[in-house]
Amino acid sequence: TSNKKYLHMSNNSEIEGTDRVLSCLPYLIPLLDGERYGKYLFYLVPALGMADSILLGPFKAIYSLIPFAQLIAFIGLSVLSRNPDLPRPVRFNMQQALILDITLIVPSLLGQLPFPIPALLANSGSNCVYLAMVASVG
């Protein structure tokens, strides 16, 4: 009975196929923003880099053509995630994608430290960030 109560409270007894697709789309933003952390992994595993360029290549092209695309996407997701007319799962996933995108700022700040970080540590850290981001999106 408590499960039915929870479903009733969320106003979503069943998630439709279109909502599932719409719920996945916001995760393209952290994938595109966090791809730079996978460059060492792509060097070690060229097939992974090839898969990344095939799957995300068209989105990267569009993303790079539009000036301030990252800012526009971030603000757009932030505004849309508060729209009560959108289904709850879609709004939830928008918020999760925003949080994931914000957390990708921390590793880039660590890369700006005034003292050099050993290459092995920087490469390993970059790989870990990329794998954690992909695992979170997955």
UniProtKB/TrEMBL annotation:
UniProt xrefs under InterPro entries: Tic20
Keyword vocabulary terms for this entry: Membrane, Transmembrane, Transmembrane helix
Record-level GO cellular component terms: chloroplast membrane
Cell compartment(s), UniProt: Plastid, Chloroplast membrane
Major subcellular site: plastid
Coiled-coil residues: none
Pfam families named among the record's database cross-references: TIC20 (PF16166)
Record field: transmembrane: 62-80
Membrane topology recorded in Swiss-Prot or TrEMBL: Multi-pass membrane protein
Stated family: Belongs to the Tic20 family.
Name of this chain's protein: Protein TIC 20
Organism: Proboscia inermis
